[in-house]
Model the fold of this input.
Amino acid sequence: MELGLYILIGLAVVLLVGSRIAWRMRTYSRQLSAFLAEHDCSLISVKIPKLWQTGPFPKVSVRFGAVHTETLGVRMTHFEHRIVTFKDKSGAQHTLWVRLLVNLLTIQDIIWEPGNKLLPDRYR
Done:
């Protein structure tokens, strides 16, 4: 009985860590490309910054009243940061940081770097 409990806890930890690594390695280029297309822009590339690099965004932020998902007491929404290079409708190339609020299945919010006048943020 005790061994089975240890195996179950071990599997839960492996699943949690594995899902975090999988989220970290995703570029979300399909979703970002669709968002950029809505604003007459085309995606060139998406880079994943080094761990703990957040660009112009604060490293720690607190949100009150935000929608989040919990599974077995583990919060399943988190922020991911990406460096996006795209072309606007005039053909000019731009590189911006983006903060993505990601839940288990999709992107909830797309927040472009502060001071950006090219693209609006999207909140759900």
